[in-house]
Amino acid sequence: MSWQVWLYVAAVFIPLIAFTIQLLFVRLLGRLNAYLATGAIATAFVFSLIGFVSYFSQTEGLFKGHAVHQEGPASAGNEHAEHAEKPHEILVWKGSFDWITLGNDTMASAEQPSPSRLSIPLGVHIDNLTVIMFLMVTFIATLIHIYSMGYMHDDPRYPRFFTYLSLFCFSMLGLVASANVFMVFVFWELVGVCSYLLIGFWYEEKKNCDAANKAFVVNRVGDVGMLIGLGILWTTFGTFNISDLNHSLSDSRLRHEKNYRIVRDSAGDEVPVQLIETNAKGETVKTTYTIPYFMLAVAGLGVFAGCVGKSAQFPLHVWLPDAMAGPTPVSALIHAATMVAAGVYLVGRFYPLFTEEVLLYIAYTGGITLFIAASIAMVQTDYKKVLAYSTVSQLGFMMLALGVGGWAAGLFHLITHAFFKALLFLGAGSVYHSVHTYEMPVLGGLRKKMRITAYTMLVGTLAISGVPFFSGFYSKDAILAAAYYRVIVEPGQLKHIMLFILPAVGAVMTAFYMFRMWLLTFAGEPRGYPALAQDNHGHGHSAHGHDDHHAGNPYDHAHESEPIMTVPLLVLAFFSVFVGWTAWFGLPVDEAVLEYMLSYGAPVRSTDAWSVHWIAFASSIVIATAGIGAGLAYYAPPWAAIVPFWAPQRRYNVPVAFRRRFDPQKAAHRFSGLYNFLAHKWYFDEIYNAVLVQPTLALGRLCTEFDKRVIDGVVNGSAHLTALLSRMEGIFDKIAVDGLVNLVAKVVYVTGDWGRTIQTGRLRNYLMFLAVALVGLFVGVFAWIRG
Amino acid sequence: MSDLVLLTLLWLIPLIGSVAVLFIPKSMELAIKGVSLAATIVTFALTLVAFAEYVAPNSSASASLEARAKVNQVKADSVEGDADVHEEPGAAQSDLMVRRPWIPYFNIQYYLGMDGISLSLVLLTGLVSVLACLASWGIDKQVKGYFSLFLLLTASMMGVFLSLDLFVFYVFFEVMLLPMYFLIAVWGGPRREYAAIKFLLYTLFGSVFILVAVLILYFFESPLTTTGFSGHSFDIVEMTRIASTTGYYTHNIQQLVFILFFIGFCIKLPSFPFHTWLPDAHVEAPTPISMILAGVLLKIGGYGLIRLAWPLAPLGAQDWAFPVAVVGVFSILYGALVAMAQTDFKKLVAYSSVSHMGYVTLGMAVMNLAGAGKYYAYGVNGAMYMMIAHGITSTGMFFLVGVIYERAHTRDLNKLGGLLNIMPIYGAVSILIFFGSMGLPGLCGFIAEVFVVLAAFNYNRPLAILSAAAVILTAGYILWTLQRVFLGKSEQYKGLPDLTVREKVIAVPLVVLTVALGVLPQPMLLSWMSPSVQQTVNAVARGASQGQTGAGNTVASSQP
Questions:
Q1: Where are the domains of chain B?
Q2: What span, in angstroms and rounded, lies between the C-alpha atoms of B541 and B373?
């Protein structure tokens, strides 16, 4: 194993060690927990930076032939040789050991012909994607740790917060580095439980607990799918190893004549897959397994179901907006930048597993998700909810990109999105920290008091809207290019035109709702609570620290956050611009550097849509203009909000003709049906509650009743019957002595006192009856055997 | 220490303690408690001695039971007249096996022994008895009787796991009922008489089935005479060998024996539809007895399945595997659904046991023996792992329920709340143990569940999918419970004291084991347990393949 493997293993375990220390010595450490946690993740960041540099300095030839783009696979039938090398070339550092091995060596005796070992290993697999993910996760996590020291400063459970964060960092890094899908599942659940703990961090409020439970249970629904996928793969191939399976399935695709689909047998329903494994004697053998094509698709769908849950895709997207109940740094770290992107990451990681049909399903899932979420985001009044739906929507873009074959594009967007969305959430946290409300209608004009927050968030807004020179532009451009390629350029795919229309429309909506959010929060004049608008002026800073909305108008006590919070904002703003740049100072004449680093490890069957790059570029410009224009038209303040950040006291008026803006209230009124539909989030929660949750609870109650009435009815009934019989017997004995009068009395007593008979504890009678039954049963059985 | 002494002391010490307690004057409560605790601790220490002996490198104890049985022949075996008597019983060789004639006329032996399967359960029994004894400190009603019965119960449980002779097994099995009945009926809650008698009758009902199966095996005369085995034996090891290699027991008989054993042990397990005694017994039983009941007694059902039902009737098991798997899956789902609807904390935990024990049934039943049964081995290992994991988490859960009942005097989930802020240590321990029960990776329940579910995929995919789907329900009821008990705010329970030192002593081993078994399954358990499980799996696989060759009665012995 190379030293880099140990480097990454150390980077994974340092947060775990920090977590353990924090957990055990919480009383001793107290608030020092924060420094320990931050130090741990910062160390992990340094390690992953070393790994990053080491990796890309070893991949010679990565930047050679920089601008040479291969044609997509559909038209590349004669370029096999060039492609065939591709998946085998990339540099990988890996190492593993067996975590679980059943039985022992003596079992592999003559009566069991060479059983290959069926073990569950733990291992790491570091390739270019891992290296980049690792760097992103540790970097953003470090910044968010620093930010949290300011944001959570006054929280009574400050140390515990950092303990949970350390556990999360361990789980997330473990997930990224996992070499097999079983480990992915383990860490998948662990990040889920961290998410649960942190969403419900303020568990005194029932709302927060409900959100935490919902997040966990919805994720478990996805996990069941994943477990199904795991079960099918494991029982067919006997391995969980991602790269082994990827290799075999890529080989299969490479052998395809035309378009890199998975090769099936002559009948068309079995897929032969050749795996290299080690047998009991330690020799390397090639074994060919066959799996029905249908089962392979089901396995792919199962694994994807896990990703749907984790990455909040339709129809399991409902948990993510509620998850905003957690502290805002958590929303930034877990529910925007890292954990929710894990689903996309796994789809990218396990890409060769997905058959054509599954990829199409992934693309449509992404498309539907991005559209639904963007439409809901347009009408939210809570700025954190806007960001939450925006996250769902952006994850949809990534899934769609992967589904249409834009492997590098989707993962590129994952990285750029992590930066600008973390920025936006941290900015939102900074605003909340200052004004203690999430409601945009009572805000406005905050740019004057919170300049750093306002303008760093503007950078984030421009990035997510896809304005040139900001990182989001490059990744969205790549996604649109991939979608365009898949639908228009590949022959006969025009029926999937929605896969291009949905992201295009979604991107317009994105620009609209993001500008709406920014303008409502930072532009114009402060609005405040109508009732308080006049009399509460001068309340000033005395209201600071209250959570009560009515302690004063938010603007009055607004202030810029401390440097410990604004510095991470500035750093993230910097990266939100530059992380997507090309080698040509960000000019869109070339592929972005990061995208190039990613596409180095692109699997077979991913497309290279460079040829349609300019079309996507043009549509990106149109989209951004349309979305931003609509946002400005509706929400720009009537006197025009051009207030330069270098001189916040000056404003420049725009021409009068532009002042007759569109009125959002009128629009909402005119389309009230649609508005309500969107404001109720398409009624997903209501439908799920009625169709899934309530019936399950009802079924539980039904089973309980069944238990009580039917099963216990039989049990008690037979007991009563026995008791009755034995009483009858007693009665019969007494007939001769006491006569008929006593009998009548007895029967009355028996029936009247029925309920209590069981409690008399007349063991003697029951035992006698049982003995009789036993003898009878035994005699019967014995007679049957003999006969 | 010779095997005879060691293995005998394992059940004899609690028994001696049980009698000794009776001679202590009633007024000396502390002495009674002290003696009982000492007896359980010594017993536990002896189980650790046995464990050390078992896992020692090159230990002769870790050989298969079959191999050890050959070394430990009974001298002057009156029925079989076996010729090759190697040595004095148990002489010098320390291999955790004792074999002495007891009632030679009926070929009954005093036959005790351990392999990985029983050892893991013996260790569990030892630990849980110590913890339950500590948890019994608060008992103030008829202390003498309580502890005497408690120790008698411990002795009989030990005996069940140690026996390798069906007759001895059955004696211990029946002796166990008596103390349990009185412990519930005298020291229980308001409906204790009902619960106790329900428990007793249910279990006696099951015992009938087991007894009939045992007697059938004893009196059966096979048409096959070439095996050198003529029945009239209670020897579990020998009968396992015969059943798995020779086809001595015909197909029909195996089906019958299997179903009798299965029903008998299903009641103990318990599995749907024989589970309704469990919630009542748990709700009425005092806390320590609930701990024993969930932690150990239910495992006797599972142990019976893995030690008797499957190995003694592999052909029958093969035939019945599908319905049995269905029963397992149904129990998992049904238990979880009913648990979700409970408002009594203790009842909820009881139903969660029904659900979890379903995994044991399912893990045993997923008999796809292709590929030398290597996937099936995961199922059986998962079943065993579930028994140990559930033994730890459910002991912990019932203990924790008892703690809160003692303080808040209610178990109503709708009345509790906000306890995490009031009792932080208690809350943290509870959340961890409940997560362990929920099957969170890194904690003990996960390994068990995932083994069984994965093995099920190799048997029947729809059933596997259903069992996988149960994790949603499990998460649902566990998280909902945690929310209702620990989260939120509560004025009513403000000022409740956190765990006392004694309670912490009980909680710590459970917490440590919950984590350790989840993180290090191989060194903690599988490395020494799974070879024995593998032997059982191989025996079952061999036995079941007798039927596949189509001529179960004519296959000659493959043994020399």
A1: 320-534
A2: 7
